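Write out the bound-state structure for adenosine-3',5'-cyclic-monophosphate.
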Amino acid sequence: MASDRTLAIIKPDAFGRALAGQVLAHLEHAGFRLVSARVLHLTDAQAREFYAVHRERPFYGSLVSFMTSGPCMPLVLARADAVATLRKVIGATDPREAEPGTVRKLFAESKERNAIHASDSDTNAEREQAFFFAETERLRTL
Ligand code: CMP
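---
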Protein backbone atom coordinates (compact mmCIF):
# COMPACT_ATOMS: atom_id res chain seq x y z
CA MET A 1 0.00 0.00 0.00
CA ALA A 2 1.26 3.51 -0.83
CA SER A 3 2.51 5.49 2.15
CA ASP A 4 0.24 8.16 3.64
CA ARG A 5 3.18 10.50 4.44
CA THR A 6 5.53 12.51 2.29
CA LEU A 7 8.08 15.31 2.54
CA ALA A 8 7.78 18.75 0.99
CA ILE A 9 10.05 21.79 1.21
CA ILE A 10 8.76 25.31 0.68
CA LYS A 11 11.90 26.61 -1.03
CA PRO A 12 13.79 29.87 -0.36
CA ASP A 13 12.15 31.71 -3.30
CA ALA A 14 8.61 31.15 -2.00
CA PHE A 15 9.52 31.44 1.69
CA GLY A 16 11.46 34.66 1.02
CA ARG A 17 8.46 36.22 -0.75
CA ALA A 18 6.27 35.43 2.30
CA LEU A 19 4.26 32.84 0.37
CA ALA A 20 4.57 30.01 2.93
CA GLY A 21 1.07 30.61 4.30
CA GLN A 22 -0.51 30.59 0.84
CA VAL A 23 1.35 27.42 -0.18
CA LEU A 24 0.31 25.69 3.05
CA ALA A 25 -3.32 26.73 2.57
CA HIS A 26 -3.18 25.29 -0.95
CA LEU A 27 -1.82 21.97 0.35
CA GLU A 28 -4.42 21.79 3.14
CA HIS A 29 -7.13 22.57 0.61
CA ALA A 30 -5.86 19.57 -1.40
CA GLY A 31 -6.52 17.34 1.61
CA PHE A 32 -3.07 17.23 3.23
CA ARG A 33 -2.73 17.39 7.01
CA LEU A 34 0.37 19.06 8.43
CA VAL A 35 2.24 16.50 10.58
CA SER A 36 5.46 18.47 11.24
CA ALA A 37 7.15 21.66 10.04
CA ARG A 38 10.47 23.47 10.56
CA VAL A 39 11.99 26.72 9.35
CA LEU A 40 15.70 26.41 8.73
CA HIS A 41 18.54 27.77 6.63
CA LEU A 42 20.28 24.82 4.94
CA THR A 43 24.06 24.69 5.11
CA ASP A 44 26.05 23.99 1.98
CA ALA A 45 26.80 20.45 3.24
CA GLN A 46 23.12 19.76 3.98
CA ALA A 47 21.95 20.97 0.56
CA ARG A 48 24.66 18.91 -1.19
CA GLU A 49 23.66 15.81 0.75
CA PHE A 50 19.91 16.29 0.28
CA TYR A 51 20.31 16.68 -3.50
CA ALA A 52 23.23 14.20 -3.85
CA VAL A 53 21.25 12.24 -6.46
CA HIS A 54 21.69 15.25 -8.81
CA ARG A 55 25.43 15.70 -8.15
CA GLU A 56 26.42 14.91 -11.75
CA ARG A 57 23.81 17.25 -13.28
CA PRO A 58 24.94 20.60 -14.73
CA PHE A 59 22.51 22.51 -12.46
CA TYR A 60 23.74 20.94 -9.19
CA GLY A 61 26.00 23.82 -8.08
CA SER A 62 23.39 26.43 -8.89
CA LEU A 63 20.67 24.38 -7.13
CA VAL A 64 22.81 24.13 -3.98
CA SER A 65 23.45 27.92 -4.06
CA PHE A 66 19.74 28.61 -4.44
CA MET A 67 18.71 26.20 -1.67
CA THR A 68 21.22 27.82 0.72
CA SER A 69 20.28 31.40 -0.25
CA GLY A 70 17.72 31.81 2.53
CA PRO A 71 15.44 29.96 4.93
CA CYS A 72 13.21 27.15 3.72
CA MET A 73 10.42 25.17 5.31
CA PRO A 74 10.48 21.34 5.32
CA LEU A 75 7.07 19.76 5.97
CA VAL A 76 5.80 16.27 6.69
CA LEU A 77 2.39 15.97 5.06
CA ALA A 78 -0.24 13.24 5.39
CA ARG A 79 -3.13 12.02 3.27
CA ALA A 80 -4.02 8.87 1.33
CA ASP A 81 -1.56 8.14 -1.53
CA ALA A 82 0.57 11.04 -0.29
CA VAL A 83 3.57 10.89 -2.66
CA ALA A 84 1.69 10.65 -5.96
CA THR A 85 -1.01 13.09 -4.89
CA LEU A 86 1.46 15.75 -3.77
CA ARG A 87 3.44 15.45 -7.02
CA LYS A 88 0.20 16.12 -8.90
CA VAL A 89 -0.73 19.06 -6.66
CA ILE A 90 2.67 20.79 -7.04
CA GLY A 91 2.85 20.39 -10.85
CA ALA A 92 5.74 20.00 -13.28
CA THR A 93 9.31 21.04 -12.33
CA ASP A 94 9.20 23.87 -14.87
CA PRO A 95 6.31 26.22 -14.04
CA ARG A 96 5.82 26.92 -17.75
CA GLU A 97 4.83 23.25 -18.13
CA ALA A 98 2.80 23.01 -14.89
CA GLU A 99 -0.98 22.57 -15.02
CA PRO A 100 -3.14 25.57 -14.06
CA GLY A 101 -3.93 25.63 -10.35
CA THR A 102 -0.79 23.73 -9.29
CA VAL A 103 1.55 25.20 -6.67
CA ARG A 104 4.33 25.75 -9.18
CA LYS A 105 2.05 27.34 -11.77
CA LEU A 106 0.76 29.70 -9.10
CA PHE A 107 3.96 30.50 -7.20
CA ALA A 108 7.17 29.37 -9.00
CA GLU A 109 9.52 31.78 -10.76
CA SER A 110 11.56 29.35 -12.91
CA LYS A 111 12.60 25.72 -13.32
CA GLU A 112 15.16 26.17 -10.53
CA ARG A 113 13.31 28.69 -8.32
CA ASN A 114 10.23 26.49 -8.39
CA ALA A 115 8.70 27.20 -4.96
CA ILE A 116 8.41 23.67 -3.62
CA HIS A 117 10.06 20.26 -3.52
CA ALA A 118 8.17 16.99 -3.03
CA SER A 119 9.50 13.44 -2.65
CA ASP A 120 9.17 11.37 -5.84
CA SER A 121 8.81 7.85 -4.35
CA ASP A 122 7.88 6.18 -1.05
CA THR A 123 11.56 5.23 -0.57
CA ASN A 124 12.72 8.83 -1.05
CA ALA A 125 9.84 10.12 1.10
CA GLU A 126 11.11 7.96 3.97
CA ARG A 127 14.73 9.08 3.48
CA GLU A 128 13.80 12.76 3.09
CA GLN A 129 11.49 12.81 6.13
CA ALA A 130 14.31 11.25 8.20
CA PHE A 131 16.71 13.89 6.83
CA PHE A 132 14.80 16.68 8.60
CA PHE A 133 12.62 15.12 11.30
CA ALA A 134 12.99 12.75 14.25
CA GLU A 135 10.79 9.66 14.28
CA THR A 136 8.62 11.10 17.04
CA GLU A 137 7.91 14.16 14.88
CA ARG A 138 6.98 12.33 11.69
CA LEU A 139 5.20 9.24 12.95
CA ARG A 140 2.84 10.85 15.43
CA THR A 141 -0.84 10.19 14.86
CA LEU A 142 -3.03 13.09 13.79
P1 CMP B 1 13.09 19.57 -7.08
O1 CMP B 1 11.78 18.92 -7.24
O2 CMP B 1 13.45 20.08 -5.74
O3 CMP B 1 14.24 18.53 -7.54
C1 CMP B 1 15.50 18.94 -8.02
C2 CMP B 1 15.55 20.41 -8.29
O4 CMP B 1 16.55 20.80 -9.19
C3 CMP B 1 14.26 20.85 -8.98
O5 CMP B 1 13.18 20.79 -8.10
C4 CMP B 1 14.65 22.23 -9.46
O6 CMP B 1 14.67 23.20 -8.42
C5 CMP B 1 16.09 21.95 -9.89
N1 CMP B 1 16.18 21.65 -11.33
C6 CMP B 1 15.74 20.56 -11.97
N2 CMP B 1 16.02 20.61 -13.28
C7 CMP B 1 16.67 21.78 -13.47
C8 CMP B 1 17.22 22.43 -14.61
N3 CMP B 1 17.19 21.87 -15.83
N4 CMP B 1 17.80 23.62 -14.42
C9 CMP B 1 17.85 24.18 -13.19
N5 CMP B 1 17.34 23.61 -12.06
C10 CMP B 1 16.75 22.43 -12.21
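---
The chain has a mean pLDDT of 97.
The two ends are 19 Å apart (CA to CA).
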